[in-house]
Automatic annotation (TrEMBL):
This is ATP-binding cassette domain-containing protein. Residues 9-241 form the ABC transporter domain. GO terms for biological process: L-amino acid transport. Keywords: Amino-acid transport, ATP-binding, Nucleotide-binding, Transport. It comes from the Bacteria. Belongs to the ABC transporter superfamily. It comes from Pseudooceanicola spongiae. SMART domains: AAA (SM00382).
Length: 241
């Protein structure tokens, strides 16, 4: 599979799973440079497994993944991260007894350039000023929304070409969800390339360039977000309305 011009991430025929049967069945999609591509679907149907497979944390059993034209077959997660892929997992998985600043440092662990680190940190603090206010605070003492911001900031500290974010709204109050998606909207304006996972398509339709519906490990629909919101039969069948 040759790289599509202007495409940062490409998946072709991906099958993946854990110890038992496949969780993902023949997933093919592309994430063009500078766009937000969103995967929506019911909980427990393979969305997080998809991101884990791309980042090398879950075994891929068939298919190809390319990042910037480079085949990721056989590469360990740390090598995939070094090539420019950052994964913000569901629930953030912060280091709870480290400070906000130390968690952000961990995001830049692959970089040994102090000037690059300083520039990335300045960008993160400009995007997420609350983190600058909380830079010396222990992560476990933060609110849910603040922890989610640290997770996104840690991903950005990697300086990645593609940012994957897994359900950033999970478990948060509506006002905080709005704040988180304002941040993602700013990333969109900056021209960032993002693969986003979300359960609720209405929440992210205004941010997304393309939306894919994932059900039982298969892509059952792909297209423009506005079109999905008009397909009441799809929303009812797969997402409960």
């Amino acid at each position: 599979m040759s790289e599509t011009k202007g495409t940062s991430l490409e998946l072709e025929g991906i099958h993946a799973g854990y110890d038992g049967p496949d969780v993902l069945h023949g997933i093919t999609l592309t994430v063009p440079q500078g766009q937000i591509v969103t995967v929506v679907g019911p909980n427990g149907h393979g969305k997080s497994t998809l991101l884990r497979t791309i980042s090398g944390l879950t075994a891929r059993r068939a298919g190809r993944i390319r990042l910037g034209g480079q085949d990721l077959t056989g590469l360990r997660p740390e090598r995939i991260a070094a090539l420019g892929l950052a994964h913000v997992p569901q629930g953030d998985l912060l280091f709870p007894e480290m400070t906000v600043y130390e968690n952000l440092q961990m995001g830049a662990y692959l970089s040994r350039d102090p000037q690059q680190f300083a520039a990335l940190l300045e960008d993160v603090y400009a995007l997420l000023p609350r983190l600058k206010e909380r830079h010396g605070q222990i992560a476990s003492s933060l609110s849910g929304g603040e922890r989610r911001m640290v997770g996104i900031g840690r991903g950005l500290m990697a300086g990645a070409r593609v940012l994957m974010i897994d359900e950033p709204s999970l478990g948060l109050a509506p006002l905080v969800i709005e704040q988180i998606y304002e941040v993602i909207g700013t990333l969109r304006e900056q021209g960032r390339t993002i693969l986003l996972v979300e359960e609720n398509p209405a929440r992210v339709a205004h941010l997304s360039d393309v939306m894919h519906l994932l059900d039982d490990g298969r892509l059952t629909w792909s297209g423009a977000p506005a079109e999905l919101l008009e397909r009441e039969e799809l929303l009812e069948t797969y997402l409960g309305g």
